[in-house]
Design a protein that fits this description.
Blueprint lengths: L8 H6 L5 H13 L6 H6 L8 H6 L28 E5 L2 E7 L25 H13 L5 E6 L7 H12 L6 E6 L1 H4 L6 H6 L6 E7 L8 H12 L3 E7 L8 H13 L3 E6 L14 H11 L10 E5 L6 E3 L5 E3 L5 E4 L5 E4 L5
Parallel strand pairs: 2-3, 3-4, 4-5, 5-6, 6-7, 7-8
Antiparallel strand pairs: 1-2, 8-9, 10-11, 11-12
Helix pairs in contact: 10-11
Length: 350
């Protein structure tokens, strides 16, 4: 499949990605939550596999209409930490700058699904961006600015250049990070003009690449990453641990190795947030800990992500990887190796 993005239930049907009964079932889902698949993503889907891990991430299901009591529209409380439009200042030395609320694709588990899409908060106006930059300028503790949204790489090189020029003038900002799916879902977009727009004198640019399954790391995606990295832009990864998609140590190992082979350093593995209609993606923390623990010792240390939970209510991230050391009453520790066997530390002298 080539051409335009798929943005409606009928687009999905016409592309052969869903059948007629599914079309009828997902109409109310599409009315509530945004839909978009690029041709790159659509071409990755195996239509003969009812549990295809790419389809499960992007094609709506009627399970999204089921909302559990603990779910909330703003699960990590962005709004409570937003002093001006487009800024989230949760941690002392860094802010989110949500310049746009549009994405090239819409993940069915998105924790900002109530805010993004055509029905969402749109793109910042020039006045709103100026106010956001003024806030950053006035707060000298801000060392890093993280562009997110929405996906900031849907913006034109001209708009990105304007943002980077604004940040270039703020001397205490040293790091600019972009959170994006674009290199894997629309790799051709990563061209010379866009790459150049992401750089500014005196700033170090990072790209945090979101991918959840090794099949997303196609040759084209790897080439797009190479264009960024070869231009001096560092890359890290972020993934979400998702039931039925990557909740298997062998799948996660393939994904993390694909990142490292592409010169993308594994960074965060997120426990799914409590976004509305996403309970079918969530596994419990203990199961997640077992999966992450199974990676330890079996694949290179370069490939180890940090398993984190965004604590509901806006309390920030907590590392929730299994505690491998337990203190005993005698002051010694039981330390678990990668096979799950406990050892005393310091070792017994007997």
């Amino acid at each position: 499949m080539t051409g335009q993005s798929l943005k409606t239930a009928h687009d999905l049907f016409d592309a052969g990605l869903i059948d007629e009964p599914t079309l009828d079932r997902i109409r109310p889902v599409v009315e509530r939550y945004a839909v978009a698949l690029t041709s790159t993503v659509a071409n990755l889907i195996d239509t003969h596999d009812a549990n295809d891990p790419i389809a499960l991430q992007f094609i709506p299901r009627d399970a999204e209409l089921v909302q559990t009591p603990e779910e909330r529209a703003d699960p990590i409380s962005d709004e409570a930490h937003s002093p001006v439009h487009g800024i989230v200042h949760r941690y002392p030395d860094r802010v989110l700058l949500k310049a746009v609320h549009i994405c090239p694709v819409y993940c069915r588990f998105c924790f900002r699904r109530e805010m993004v899409g055509p029905q969402g908060n749109g793109t910042m106006s020039a006045d709103e961006l100026a106010a956001a930059l003024a806030y950053i300028r006035d707060h000298e503790e801000i060392w890093e600015v993280i562009l997110t949204g929405g996906d900031p790489l849907v913006l034109s090189p001209r708009r990105l250049t304007a943002i980077m020029e604004g940040l270039k003038a703020i001397s205490h900002v040293k790091i600019v990070r972009f959170h994006t799916r674009v290199p894997v879902v629309d790799p051709e977009r990563i061209d010379a003009d866009l790459v150049e727009a992401l750089k500014a004198s005196g700033k170090t640019t990072y790209i945090a690449l979101h991918a959840n399954h090794p099949r997303e790391m196609t040759d084209e995606a790897r080439d797009a990453c190479a264009r960024l990295i070869d231009a001096g832009i560092a890359m890290v990864s972020q993934s979400v641990l998702l039931k039925g998609i990557n909740d298997d140590p062998s799948i996660l190992a393939q994904l993390m190795r694909a990142f490292v082979e592409t010169r993308v350093k594994p960074y965060y593995l997120h426990h799914p947030d409590l976004a509305p209609g996403t309970s079918h993606f969530r596994l419990d923390i203990e199961e997640g800990q077992r999966i992450v623990s199974a990676l330890r010792g079996h694949i290179s240390g370069l490939c180890q992500p940090t398993y984190v939970l965004d604590i509901p209510g806006g309390h920030g991230k907590a590392v929730i990887g299994q505690n491998a050391a337990t203190k005993h009453a005698d002051g010694c520790y039981a330390v678990s190796d990668f096979n799950g066997k406990d050892h005393l530390y310091p070792p017994s002298s007997e």
